[in-house]
Amino acid sequence: MAEQSNKEDKLILSRAEDAVDFARNKYLIKAVGFLNPHQRTLISRNIGNAYGCKCLFDGGYPDAERTMFVCCPEYDEYDIDDIVSVIEITGRELVGLSHRDYLGSLMGLGITRENIGDILVSDSGAFIFVKGEIADYIVQNLNKIGRKGINTKVVKCSQAKIPEPKYKELQGTVPSERLDAIVAFVAGTSRSKACELIEKGLVCVNWEVTDNVSAKVCQGDLLSVRGVGRSRIRCFGGLTRKGRLGIIADKFE
Description:
The longest helix has 25 residues, at 2-26. The chain is globular. By secondary structure, the chain is an alpha+beta fold. Helix 1 crosses helix 2 and helix 5 crosses helix 6. Strand 7 and strand 8 (148-149) form a beta hairpin. The protein folds into 3 domains: 2-78, Ribosomal Protein S8, Chain: A, domain 1 (2-Layer Sandwich); 82-159, Alpha-Beta Plaits, CATH 3.30.70.330; 167-252, Structural Genomics Hypothetical 15.5 Kd Protein In mrcA-pckA Intergenic Region, Chain A (Roll), CATH 3.10.290. The protein is 27% helix and 34% strand. The model has no long low-confidence stretch (mean pLDDT 90).
């Protein structure tokens, strides 16, 4: 599994490097993706900006989880609607359909995951961010999600309705800023169990797997614990009389 992951990482880095070279040498815009957060972090650390080329990540709206790696000639600009399209899905009785339902129907059309960005689901339907070149194909061929009939149309990124993130505020104290202590707090479990989760590779900090139980967690860090969900550390407070550190975190629902 680790070997396969390493091969995939090398491939995505190679594609990103090729995109940088293409934009710089051909003076044309080139995009790679959609990328998952791990791939985005990988590219950021290894490539970042390059001479004569602007490199950035864009998923069609601020704070998108899945993004394109966009390489643009240094003195050029790009229009996200030339790269990303949004499929608006509406219909009757769509309440209860999940992200998995929409994704499964798209992949049932033979569309691979890298062609699909974020899927924003509501009771009335969904907005699905996709690569622009496959938008017409989806509209022509996607007529059901599960057994429920739908209507589809292509809209601009700015027309997508972005839901407000739902989260529960967690307040309390921790013995320190160590990862095992923070995971125990956000997961509502013991510190020994938190260590077990970390050492098994089930914890990500800012989208990167972290197996160091003593790693320092900072304000603003995003923690993902498999089976528990995601939490962002809003802030740390002062020390209590017993020497514990105050903490507030947002646990996403």
